[in-house]
Amino acid sequence: MSGSDARGAFDEIQEKTPDASGVSYEQGTVGGVPGVWCHPQNPRPGVAILYLHGGAYVQGSAHAYRHLAGQVAVRTSVSTFVADYRLAPEHPFPAALDDAKAAYRGLVEQGTQKIAIVGDSAGGGLALVLLAIAQSDALARGSVAPSAAVVMSPWTDLALTGLSLQDHADDDPLLTREVLSMASASYLNGHEPNDPLVSPLYGSFTDLPSIQIHVGTSEVLLDDTRRYAKRAHAEEVDVTAHVWEGMTHVFPGNVGTLNAAEAALGMIATFLKSKTNP
Length: 278
What we know:
About 35% of the residues lie in helices and about 20% in strands.
């Protein structure tokens, strides 16, 4: 399932995440970026979640990920915007980051007082890059600082230096080093892979808000979480990495099938509510 030619099949798989009861979906645009709003019943005013989807920067769509984002929205009672950021190879770096920043600024311009950033896989890495940028802008310009971030199986190192890429290759039924290498080359288009703007593992951790991470032991990106969390801890960031035994890449998407998925979504909701409550 690698490359842009597999986008349709990839989206079909992502849409198998069950639709959350009580969520309505609405096409929208935030900061000039198209996407899908996931509205729970009686959403809390002044609060929003910006969701950045996975797909290794070459696949995925807001429409396909609306069910997973909706599962978060209904559990937090927060309207969630899934950004349809541009994909490589048609739009390599920095297109995805530019769209993520524009969507965040758009939420601020709409008067949103508390914003949490959530993402999975490549979108998880993008979320952590955006988190650092938004926090820096808030300190420098007095903009709205992100309240928190939650990432699932984040891709934090596009240089692909994690040992789990090899050590857990036989355990991961979804990703391989070869697939990630092709996707990285497509997105980077010659750009340096250890630039903090593409690989948050090498970025700034100064004054970051609280971060919660979920990852499985049966995935090649396990070390992308472990190393990011270790660096964040060293910089005194409030980060908690939940490592789930035997779980695969972005396993919370299997809610309704895996007990661990339901448990993880519950932990995500509890965390986000605690960080976005008045």
